[in-house]
Specification:
Layout lengths: L2 H30 L5 H12 L4 H26 L10 H27 L12 H8 L2 H28 L6 H27 L4
Helix pairs in contact: 1-3, 1-6, 1-7, 3-4, 4-6, 6-7
């Protein structure tokens, strides 16, 4: 690995963890407000819409970093040699699933933003409980969002585990084993909160 590739992969790692962590955290917090009822959800989305320079913040701190992470991630994905079927170790499977969920998450995020942020669902900008409920009334839409959500959470939590290794935070088998357990716990908690919240839009 030459120095350019080394720094590109470091930047790719950083540009995935920071914006995706923020993007998912914000979305999970917002959709879980649906558990408290339509008014709580609408208040949360109204607050986000009221943020100053919202479009600039979204482009600079979410869209551009994720675009770089996604495009360079696709290059890494198609360049990598996956051997999960030949060597069925947990790390090999995690590596393989990280690449698969990278593609699914990239497509899902683009589709989700198109539907909800740019009115692709034909309902304008979807920022109210009633509008989201109308979309999720279609079982296929709800199922696809649930699948995309789980893939995004896996990509984030497994990515956080490898991020800690790559950046020298968890050194040694014991530290990496503990961090992996914590990431699996985080994966379970985030999915539980997000998936349960999705069902509240169905009434």
């Amino acid at each position: 690995m030459n120095s350019n590739e080394f720094y590109l992969k470091r930047l790719h790692s950083l540009m995935g963890v920071i914006p995706l962590t923020f993007f998912l955290s914000e979305h999970i917090f917002t959709i879980t407000r649906a558990i408290a009822g339509p008014k709580a959800f609408d208040a949360a989305t109204a607050f986000l819409q009221s943020l100053p320079m919202l479009y600039g913040l979204e482009i600079l701190f979410i869209a551009l970093p994720l675009l770089f992470h996604g495009v360079y991630g696709l290059f890494i994905t198609f360049e990598s040699k996956n051997n999960a079927f030949s060597y069925t170790y947990a790390r090999n499977w995690n590596f393989y699933l990280q690449r698969i969920t990278a593609i699914i998450t990239l497509v899902f995020v683009a589709w989700h933003v198109y539907l909800f942020r740019f009115g692709g669902a034909g309902l304008g900008q979807v920022t109210t409980f009633a509008m989201v409920a109308k979309i999720f009334a279609d079982p296929l839409m709800l199922t696809l969002h649930a699948i995309g959500f789980v893939c995004a959470v896996f990509h984030l939590t497994n990515g956080l585990w490898t991020f800690l290794i790559t950046w020298g935070v968890t050194v040694g088998p014991r530290a990496q084993q503990v961090s992996q357990f914590l990431m699996w716990a985080l994966f379970a908690v985030l999915n539980a909160g997000g998936l349960v919240a999705l069902t509240y839009f169905r009434g």
